[in-house]
Amino acid sequence: MMRNVRFKKRQNLLLSLLIVVGQFLAMPLSQADRIKDIATLQGVQANQLVGVGLVTGLDGTGDQTTQAPFTAESFRAYLDQFGIPIPPGSNFQTRNIAVVSVQAELPAFAKPGQSIDVTVSSLANAASLRGGTLERTFLMGVDGEVYAIAQGNLIVGGLGVQGADGSSVSINVPSVGRIPGGASTVKEVETAFNQGDSITFNLKRADFTTARRVSRAINDFMGQGTATALDAVSVKVRAPLDSQARVAYVAELENIQVDQGEEAARVIVNSRTGTIVIGQHVRVSPAAITHGSLSVTISEGFGVSQPGPFSDGETAVVPQTDIDIEQESNRMFLFDTGSTLSDIVQAINAVGAAPGDLAAILEALKQSGALRADLIVI
Per its database record, what is this protein's job (predicted)? Predict the structure, then answer.
């Protein structure tokens, strides 16, 4: 009796496991993307900041002021801020300073007091910024307002060494460095996040199908009439007026998953590297192609012409030209109607075409009208 009970329990457990496994296998494999991964909020973006400053403390690798006179003027203006005037007409060589461009990216919603990273690049002929310190530099936005102040010690990944005879060795780029957290925000950038009764998602890749699917997914989640696709990029969504409620609202929206629309049929050819990418949905009309290479070799030489015996002729040097022509005979292959990507690749690989030859074949197919895709050369 106990054996029967145990057997029934094991049987029920096995049946339950089979049902769970069957339900798992029956679930479709989702390849959907979150809205936050395929779109951005309009009016909420990072802002580029830039400024010009001085790097000091260099070990003789700074600017040569004779070739970069603005370095001396910048240094003069810097000392004037602290009440240290330099007599007019003074000629000085300071190889331990360099004029630099300071760049930073101010994230959206950055508040005063928050730190951001900065990149420092030489503007003149400084050999290296290794070991330098960026003096206080004001970083401005496109409107000319100061939004951050940068200062600190540089981290330079490059290395440059120069010998007395003029020989030099350079690893990476020693004239560019970074300062993690080197700038402090002093002004907040206003955004349009809390303005109006709606928000707009802008797709990173314009596509009418994706825009329609995003609006449909939002309407299914939040209710009909919530979202409207304005064009192939923008999707307008009604949003609450309260700022706290709007934050929670956007947090829900950006995690909705959407299946993106498929790309148009394209063939990308990089003429410099020979890289060729054939996208999906690439088709060809009926076409016959023969692939071969013609090799023409011309060699120049000289021969000696001897006169006949007992003649009054003279020995002469005459040019000789040899022309050799070779042509590889490859079989012609045929593309049927609606041939797919795999058919194209297999057929072209069968004739041993190199990337350059493959590009020529694809271009010929496009010119003949047989390639049903956009051919883009980069």
Answer: Assembles around the rod to form the L-ring and probably protects the motor/basal body from shearing forces during rotation.
